[in-house]
Amino acid sequence: MNFLRRILGKKVLKPRDIALKIKRLMDSSKTESVFKIYVPYRYRVFISDEDMKRLEPFRPFLIKELIDYIHRYADKQGYHLLGEPEIFIKVDKKLGQGNFKVEPIYEDNGKQTMIFDKGEIFAISENQDVTRVFKKKSGGSPILEVLEGNDEGKKFNLIGSIITIGRREDNQIMINDPNVSRYHARIVYNNNNWQIEDLNSTNGVFINGKRITISPLKSGDKICIGSTLLKFRLK
């Protein structure tokens, strides 16, 4: 590394340092509930214009590695992620080559993170304070019930504004089905409405027999992913 610095005359950006910064932010930003420890799952990474040009061919691979790192560290520490991790790499023209900044993203589509509990919605602000508590307007707390498949009979309460569904254990809803992708779909609550999105799964998402990419959800809708059939309903 010192050899590279002597040649380039400038500091060299190391992706590992970005991962370690995200790790420290996860530790410092954790929020403990009754049973779980929540940490941010979306981050902005700011780098210099020079470093962006150098990393551009490798950016998709770097983002994938950082996402894998978040999953592994969360699993190791017992942290709970409210959604599939996302990394956004942007240029900050004020930064010199080799320097970077990382910040967690707390808002969901420009809004505060939402936590559901017994029919109420708690809004968590950037400083982790509960700033609003109000009753959900359209029905009760949502539930996903497995009608057919290896998990038949299971019921999942939808907790959070983004709920991922897939085969991996770090999904909010883990489905024991080899035909389900690791991160198959996600259910999103926005503007007092629920919708489901396909996360580029192999076998797709079907609502009431129709394949969708993104679709609103209403109580009673049947969702098919892989060989598993689920029913979305409000209490």
From TrEMBL:
Entry superkingdom: Bacteria
PROSITE patterns with a match to the protein in the record: FHA_DOMAIN
Residue ranges constituting the FHA domain according to the UniProt record: 163-212
SMART domains: FHA
Classification via Pfam families: FHA, FhaA_N
InterPro entries (alphabetical): Cell_Proc_Reg/RNA_Proc (IPR050923), FHA_dom (IPR000253), FhaA_N (IPR022128), FhaA_N_sf (IPR042287), SMAD_FHA_dom_sf (IPR008984)
Protein name: FHA domain-containing protein
